[in-house]
Amino acid sequence: MMALEQIxxxxxxxxxxxxPSANMSxxxxxxxxxxxxxxxxxxxxDVPAGTVEKCIQKxxxxxxxxxxxxxxxxKKEYDLQWHEDDLRNMGPVDAQIYLEEMSWNEDxxxxxxxxRCGGKYSVSKDEAEEVNLISCDTCSLxxxxxxxx
Length: 149
Ligand SMILES: [Zn+2]
Prior knowledge:
Helix content is 42%, strand content 18%. The chain is an alpha+beta fold. It folds into two domains: 9-70, DnaJ domain (Helix Hairpins), CATH 1.10.287; 91-146, Microbial ribonuclease fold. The protein has a three-stranded mixed sheet, with helices on one face. A hairpin with a 6-residue loop joins β5 (133-135) and β6. The radius of gyration is 21 Å and the shape is elongated. Mean pLDDT is 86; it is low at 1-8. The structure holds zinc ion (ZN). Belongs to the DPH4 family. It is found in: Cytoplasm, Cytoskeleton. Residues 11-82 form the J domain. Monomer and homooligomer. Iron binding promotes oligomerization.
């Protein structure tokens, strides 16, 4: 399986000056306020060179943020991606393990691995195709799943 190319991710919430827990109407309010503030038509022309460009840049950014966060579907997708990054940042990833080294459970068609806390990392065969990080069902440790090429 080919790894998806990692595109640099932006914190679109902070572009809107919002918290990831903000609800849709909060986000909308912030967006509307900012988009007015940075709207190219609202800028005076006698400002130092470069300022207008910066505003336009910002305006575009705010618009992009809203395109992603203002739509339930894309917001959900973005939140999921962000969550995986969060897990990674929250880390530390306790171990890297090859999927093939995990125990295969014929009963429920899943792979599992014991955590040192006594809990269990577990991932179903289908999920294993998709996920890279698995968190322990008991503690907060995370393992990264690798695959033989
Ligand atoms: Zn654990």
